[in-house]
Specification:
Two copies of one chain form a homodimer.
Chain A: H1 12-23, E1 29-36, E2 46-47, H2 51-59, H3 65-72, H4 77-84, E3 91-94, E4 100-101, E5 108-113, H5 114-119, H6 121-144, E6 149-152, H7 161-173, E7 178-179, H8 182-188, H9 198-203, H10 207-217, E8 223-225, H11 231-247, E9 254-257, H12 262-275, E10 282-285, H13 291-299, E11 306-309, H14 311-314, E12 324-331, E13 334-335, E14 350-356, E15 362-369, E16 378-379, E17 382-386, E18 389-390, H15 397-408, E19 426-428, H16 430-446
Helix pairs in contact in A: 2-6, 3-4, 6-7, 10-11, 11-12
Chain lengths: ~450, ~450
């Protein structure tokens, strides 16, 4: 059983519900929509990511004989028979990856026979939620520092292997320059960056020797870590070493700071490097950075050219989860509405329309019914999979990243900062409001 | 390349450093220790978990031909030759899973040739950090509510597939009753729990029919979700349904509340069920729960028998990362000390000794040198792998869970609450302090 693709990576209730659906022959078409209920504090928008993983999951969903055996000991034979033939044959409409979106906007819609649409819920949320979580976090640093080198350094404290990989992907999609995670480079073609660890310096008898060894071993990537013992002293060693390396045509590309007062050290180190003739040697900073520390360093005009952002990015430290849900909106042609306290949903299959100002800035969105409720704006949900087949060829991650960067240019300027602004206007169409009222009235009658 | 086992799931700098180590023939024995620098706010202790995954990773670490090809395009042939033959041949000493531990205590020690010990850093932290993060979070609920059914409900908002599985494992190890994540049941033998989703109720024409269909389909696991429309009305439907099901020898085991004021609903529902003769039908609650909400519900004496804890558990929402590091402490027989500002480490290979009061309560720990610094206390670090081979047969997850529950009984009572208490006393042995001073003196001379 491969944890990354197994249909058993799901909640138990999906299986017990499916058993009942099949026994009642409840296999008519269901429409589920995925949305995020609210923005975390301090956030103004979200960036859709993870659709590629969702489509890949749906395309390849099947049960192995080992999985069927495990299930057969626990569920009715009719369910096992159903799983033996299982493949996903439904439709998926979604906002393209990199789309900026807001709470309560459906961002992905599944239209499929009820058991299929139900079975996929847990993993679909799991994949879409995490991609969007990280892309939305990464976007904040990208918008603050569009001209800086931003690198994902978060693998070691990401929550497991898949989180590390998908965080590298989502942050690159959102505009990061690359990652330190080698496998993300190998699997997704993301540019890789890396320097050296303190252990490398410590394992050598002295720091200068460590620098020299590294430079001769990786002459095309000489970025030296200078904070192991004394940052400014190490910067002076870099200046001492530079002409020796230059004689061998090796250029010291950069130095890395990883502790202490990064702004103060950067000013000192810049001066030492410049006075030593190393004006083109860049300064790269890391060490528990997030977008708030980035903003402080930028405000101080610290001479730092690039930033490694690790844990805070890969776990989305200020908002490690979004309130992301996948809800039944229609079954057998009839709109459905969940009315649980504080968790009521807008019924029916929906579309989101986006409007822009004359200056091409996003002005507002309207959530409307997908059918018989036309609007002039740009429809954000597009068909992505029909009858279980993708209808687009796969878009390259590089192109998705370019599209995301283009999307940022339409954001109202006030929303590009770290401060929470008044909510972006998202209104509910009259037709959708009427439908909700009608369902509530029917429900009251029914109770 | 399998993301769960690939040696490329690592940081780029591990590879550039290894290339240099091999070129300089720096292959003498290195000792790295893993520790957590500080407790997050409000926490009193941590629970070690993830060692099983670490040992499994080390035992199976090798490079596939595809991985070697990818590396060959980027690194020197000598590094590729080294990787072709690679297997981990070092030693691992560690605290057993389930051990309660504190900041700056080495919890895992790797002794291996420098390139090996370096290469494994990123994934070793990634696995150990996450297991310990979740076990430490889960322990808080277990200590609060030792007699309640506690179930991991977090898969959908866990950070990817591996996080979902390892969160189920770590929370069970820490004393949870089980999980809803099917694959965690299949792979680890963790007890599975599940009810039904709101979509199940909504897909039916009415709630009572949904309840009946579910009961007949899963007669051994009848836990009915009663908050989709009106919780108390649904509880009355449960009472109506019970005798009909009883005629078919089906027992309604429980109901689930998932929204609104859980305590108030629980009191109402308990009364409705009791008056309807359903005294043995339990009440299970879920919906954005964490240990603080659990405490509130327990304080209110809400008649709730079990809790599904989801997102807050699987992402460790109040502390989604620990400051977990893996540092070089000795190379080629010589102790090493990193002195970066605010990040200095205790040098040398170390042992942790634990002391107990006459009442068998933990009193204090001493961090000492592993050799020539004997202490009377219980040594916490044990040999787990020697020369690349495990020295114990695998302990069952069930036994690890029992051991963890036993460990809790030695915690000072004041540390079992959700409030932060004065730090548990961890002292540094005189010999270790002397070694650190000596290294600092040598360093000053050296600079």
């Amino acid at each position: 059983m491969n944890p990354l693709s197994s249909p058993l990576l799901s909640d138990l209730y999906q299986f017990t519900m499916l058993q009942s659906y099949l026994e009642q022959d409840m296999q008519e078409t269901a429409v589920f929509e995925l949305f995020i209920r609210k923005l975390p504090p301090g956030r103004n928008f979200m960036v859709a990511a993870g659709l590629e993983q969702v489509l890949n999951f749906l395309e390849n969903l099947k049960f192995s004989s080992e999985e069927l055996d495990w299930l057969a000991a626990r569920f009715h034979p009719s369910l096992i028979d159903y799983f033996e033939q299982f493949h996903f044959s439904g439709d998926v409409h979604a906002m393209p990856e990199g789309t900026l979106f807001f709470p309560n906007e459906p961002v992905l819609r599944v239209t499929a026979p009820l058991p299929q649409a139900q079975l996929i819920e847990s993993r679909l949320i799991n994949l879409f939620h995490f991609g969007t979580l990280i892309a939305s976090k990464a976007a904040r640093s990208v918008l603050l520092a569009p001209d800086k080198l931003l690198v994902d350094f978060g693998m070691r404290r990401a929550h497991g292997a898949e989180a590390a990989l998908l965080a590298a992907r989502a942050s690159y999609l959102a505009g990061f320059s690359g990652t330190a995670t080698v496998l993300a480079g190998a699997l997704y073609g993301i540019p890789l960056f890396g320097t050296m660890a303190h252990s490398y310096i410590q394992a050598h008898a002295d720091e200068l020797t460590a620098f020299a060894h590294f430079a001769y071993s990786s002459p095309d990537n000489v970025v030296l870590l200078i904070d192991t013992y004394d940052t400014e002293a190490a910067a002076r060693k870099v200046v001492t070493l530079a002409p020796i390396l230059a004689a061998d045509r090796i250029n010291i590309q950069g130095v890395r700071l990883d502790s202490g007062d990064l702004a103060a050290h950067a000013f000192n180190v810049r001066q030492i490097l410049d006075q030593g003739g190393l004006q083109s040697t860049t300064i790269f900073a890391s060490g528990n950075l997030d977008e708030y520390k980035l903003q402080t360093l930028l405000s101080a005009k610290a001479p730092i050219d690039g930033f490694g952002i690790g844990t805070a990015l890969d776990i989305s430290i200020d908002a490690p989860a979004f309130d992301c849900v996948y809800k039944l909106q229609e079954y057998a042609g009839k709109p459905r509405r969940k009315r649980s306290e504080g968790k009521a949903t807008w019924p029916g299959r929906k579309q989101v329309y986006r409007y822009y100002t004359a200056e091409d800035e996003m002005s507002h969105d309207i959530v409307a019914l997908a059918e018989n409720d036309p609007h002039e704006g740009q429809p954000l949900l597009e068909p992505m999979m029909l009858a279980g087949q993708r209808i687009h060829s796969k878009i390259s991650l590089h192109d998705l990243r370019q599209q995301t960067l283009a999307n940022y240019t339409h954001l109202p300027k006030v929303m590009t900062t770290l401060e929470a602004t008044p909510a972006y206007p998202v209104t509910i169409s009259t037709a959708l409001q009427d439908l909700a009222k009608q369902l509530d009235a029917e429900m009251v009658t029914h109770l």
